[in-house]
């Protein structure tokens, strides 16, 4: 029961286009996500080529196009080279605008982890997808041609999860991003959504650490065969364009609340400097924990410890629980508590109705309950936000925020379930 609640909590909906509440005319498609426990990268499994094989790609919100190492052992009879005179080639990032025989479309590929740039060429191959089973009774497989970057060497893979062959670029401004290509290929709105949660196993979804949907919802969850729509409350906010980083997903965070308290934040940090691209807030699930510029981080921690103090005082008056006790911090976190003292606080948490963290947008609020604490090691629950330093490029990077150790996280899930009821 506990996990049925917890796994619905982090849903992050990103509208790639600004198309207003456009309903999908065709069923969307869905892929399972996998998360590696050491790199914490999310991988999407794509069935491609002829004969069909599964290729795992690291999900990269800021990537211009999907690419993989297609030399050395990759054979597909449906693979085609994209001509350098094609419109697709003109949409890719090119090192030099040469278009000599044999008219290969030479392009640059970016590794989002090491930030290195490699050479490759543009190819296309068949991708076979399943329609979203929540949208249609029987998932229907269908295929489309998708343009990929083909890396010239496998050196470019360094830093990426060992199980991956490349990167699934989902950049918001690129016509070659996987989201844009699927939208055109399957004629549905240019929308994708990720649903991230701890590793779960059930008869409907088997084992997964999340899903990525293209083309729209409904985003229904299954837990032991029971579908759950009730927790599906989506918050919408327009995306901002950072002129220096057009592929990335910036949002307009106006303020942050921690357990109901608004943090004092220098407004300059919250806006994007159009000349330098510095500042603002972006969403990037490659970052495991939300990262805050130092002054925001300090204000965050202060508000959080004040909340703990308030709880301790309230409990001293009302109940006979041990106080929430601070313990030695576990890096990269700086503020940690004895998790057994937190679990015992259930009833007082019930009384505290404010969400753990709220990101306040111009016309909406994204309430996040519970994900403020992370079990960093056995018995130690830390405030799961990370100091991003004094002069980061982006002031706030909203990361995946999730548990890296599902087995241990169960402790926390129980606590959270208690808090809910
Ligand atoms: C943006 O950054 C530039 C260079 O640091 C600076 O001169 C300018 O004043 C900044 N703009 C704003 C609106 O802060
Ligand atoms: C818990 O903390 C409160 C507030 O700091 C204090 O008044 C109380 O005595 C503490 N209770 C215990 C059992 O330490
Ligand atoms: C977010 O939390 C605040 C404070 O509890 C509440 O007033 C508001 O309705 C919540 N918003 C949403 C969208 O859940």
From TrEMBL:
Residues forming coiled coils: none
Active-site residues per Swiss-Prot or TrEMBL entry: 60, 284
Q: Name one GO molecular function term.
A: aspartic-type endopeptidase activity
SUPFAM superfamilies with a match to the protein in the record: Acid proteases
Which residues, if any, are the signal sequence? Answer: 1-21
Location of the Peptidase A1 domain: 42-421
Family stated for the protein in its record? Belongs to the peptidase A1 family.
Listed name of the protein: Peptidase A1 domain-containing protein
Source organism per entry reads Papaver somniferum
